[in-house]
Task: structure prediction
Amino acid sequence: MYSLCFVLEARPIPEALVPDTIPSDTPRSRRRRLTAVIFSTLVPGWGQLLLGQRPQSYLFFVLTAALGGLYWPARLPQSYRGWVFLVFGEIGLWMIAASHAAVSGHPTFHRFSSWWLILVLPAAFLGALVFTNCALAGSGFHLYGNPSTSMEPTIARRDHVIADLWYFRQHPVSRGDIVIFRREGTVFVKRVMALGGSTIWGEDTVVHVDHETLNEPYVSHDGYPQNQLDNFGPMYQRENSSLWAIIEKSVSTAALQNTARLMP
Result:
């Protein structure tokens, strides 16, 4: 009786064919990843570029550039909704980019990685806020805090408002505009009531401009009457000399120099 035997020769698989499914998690790789996370909180995509993830880095760069384009030349912060959309978009993009740099390609997502995210997300939030402030300034907008009650109820005390510093480069000042201007080192926010060439006066809390009685549903007369504010004039403003700006409870004059328009 004969039996048939096969002898198989075992040969090692070339290293080039062995997939690197579990990357090493050495102190050096962790330091590199931490550096990438820090870079991503500054500019989304920079950390991915450091890790050699070029497609992802290019995507984040394009998205960041698109957000910058919405500030200028699109100037989306001209409306409150546009500004809110940009702020939330930036915060989301910065957090996604930083989190991606922290966990992408990591061998295991263990507690150490979770702690990374707890530290990364606040840093990404701060990075997005820095970008917001720089983009606002670069596109001609400025954020102001209001410490006064003079414009209530339109603008309450401690409210924050955005002013378009470039608006009056292309648009004339109109009656009813809310403007922000600087006078003798102090920043004021007022409502325009009359322009150059007009005559304005007040009588019993009612304002008249060129024999026209103004309808002011936004005015709030609180406290004791102030005769010097409720009754004044008539006063004539010379052509192209200045404008009249009224706060919700009193009247004052303001030069047209360095005037910004409050965004709706």
Remarks:
- The mean pLDDT is 79.
- The CA atoms of residues 48 and 54 lie 7 Å apart.
